[in-house]
């Protein structure tokens, strides 16, 4: 759809710009359209005064966009005839920031909305079929099922007892390593804590992907968390006006992924390569990063990987809902390995995330057109 839009805008000689709420989403979009897409944060600048002068602005992954950032975006669009197209999936998780922009826009029925509901693929796989069933709240497996079933050609579903979950995700990750590089595999959990949360899973997978080695510098943070050269990390806070190793300034936003390329114990710092910049970080500021071998499903929004290993356990029941499962499996480009208990999935599929946010955006949209 984006490529078709680009061709049309070029034919009409209309200037355009592609934006996204996160660095991950912008990078994926750039690769897809084969030209630059940037984050909204970088477009509006460090001082929030950067002008967006294009006539047509496309905001991808709009379900992740909160009302504060959206307000800044709209204020900084300066073309007198500017038009803005928000593109997103309303069934994905709502923004972690204030508001639920995409949901309010659609439900207000005051702004033109086009729904793309026809899939143009010659051969459908299990991921698409199961994602559709989840959106519809339809059960796709018997609750008492135990074992393995392959849906289509691209979704391996394993229902196992709780005591086999740790061995199960290790098996699933190692199976993906037979075909994919570690950077092409995304492991997801719905929670940070517990034996099947991201912290514990990261400790296990770090020893698989980047084990302790005398030739690699490392630093222990807290108790039992080691950061090593070569580790994959995710930034967890918006860091504006951050100095790079070259002495320039940049924004590192929540969700940006990077790799540790240097650990300097003498000067109590490390250097992280985010792709767009190499950024030093002091040992006292390591609360702004986490290992990213396994991340929460919320953190995965806007990103994608060739293979996804997703862990849904009985201990996660409180957090689980249909939107969370849908978001997790649709991160995969090629293959999903789902590890769970079938009855847990069936309960979650019946629950839909609460999209209501008390920002009064919906009321304002309706009143402006009353």
Automatic annotation (TrEMBL):
Domain UvrD-like helicase C-terminal: 291-338
ATP-binding keyword on record: yes
Pfam families the record matches: AAA_30, SH3_13, UvrD_C_2
One GO molecular-function entry: DNA helicase activity
Keyword flag Cell cycle: no
Key words of the record: ATP-binding, Nucleotide-binding
TM annotation in the entry: none
Segments forming domain ATP-dependent RecD2 DNA helicase SH3: 201-274
CDD domains, sorted: DEXSc_RecD-like, SF1_C_RecD
InterPro entries reported for this sequence: Coronavir_polyprotein_1ab, P-loop_NTPase, RecD2_SH13, UvrD-like_helicase_C
SUPFAM superfamilies cross-referenced by the UniProt entry: P-loop containing nucleoside triphosphate hydrolases (SSF52540)
Name of the protein in question: UvrD-like helicase C-terminal domain-containing protein
Species of provenance: Brevibacillus reuszeri
Lineage: Bacteria, Bacillati, Bacillota, Bacilli, Bacillales
């Amino acid at each position: 759809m984006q490529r078709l839009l680009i061709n049309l805008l070029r034919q009409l000689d209309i200037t355009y710009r592609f934006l996204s709420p996160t660095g991950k989403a912008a990078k994926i979009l750039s690769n897809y359209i084969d030209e630059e897409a940037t984050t909204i944060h970088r477009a509006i600048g460090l001082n929030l005064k950067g002008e967006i002068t294009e006539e047509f602005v496309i905001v991808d992954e709009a379900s992740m966009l909160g009302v504060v950032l959206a307000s800044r975006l709209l204020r900084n669009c300066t073309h007198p005839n500017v038009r803005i197209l928000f593109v997103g999936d309303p069934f994905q998780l709502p923004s972690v920031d204030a508001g639920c922009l995409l949901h309010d826009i659609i439900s207000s029925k005051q702004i033109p909305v086009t729904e793309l509901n026809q899939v143009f693929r010659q051969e459908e796989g299990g991921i698409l079929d199961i994602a559709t069933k989840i959106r519809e709240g339809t059960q796709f497996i018997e609750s008492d099922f135990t074992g393995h079933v392959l849906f289509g050609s691209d979704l391996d579903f394993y229902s196992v007892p709780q005591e086999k979950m740790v061995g199960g995700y290790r098996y699933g990750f190692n199976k993906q390593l037979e075909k994919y590089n570690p950077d092409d595999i995304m492991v997801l959990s719905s929670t940070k804590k517990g034996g099947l949360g991201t912290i514990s899973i990261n400790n296990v997978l770090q020893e698989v992907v980047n084990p302790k080695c005398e030739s690699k510098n490392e630093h222990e943070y807290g108790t039992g968390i080691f950061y090593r050269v070569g580790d994959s990390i995710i930034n967890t806070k918006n860091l504006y006006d951050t100095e790079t190793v070259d002495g320039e300034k940049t924004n590192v936003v929540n969700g940006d992924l990077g790799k540790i390329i240097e650990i300097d114990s003498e000067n109590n710092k490390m250097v992280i390569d985010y792709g767009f910049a190499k950024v030093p970080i002091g040992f006292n500021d390591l609360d702004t990063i986490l290992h990213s071998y396994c991340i929460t499903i919320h953190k995965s929004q806007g990103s994608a990987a060739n293979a996804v290993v997703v862990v849904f356990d009985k201990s996660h029941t409180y957090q689980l809902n249909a939107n969370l499962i849908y978001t997790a499996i649709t991160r995969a480009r090629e293959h999903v390995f789902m590890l769970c208990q079938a009855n847990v999935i069936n309960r979650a599929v019946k629950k839909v995330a609460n999209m209501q946010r008390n920002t009064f955006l919906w009321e304002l949209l309706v009143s402006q057109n009353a």
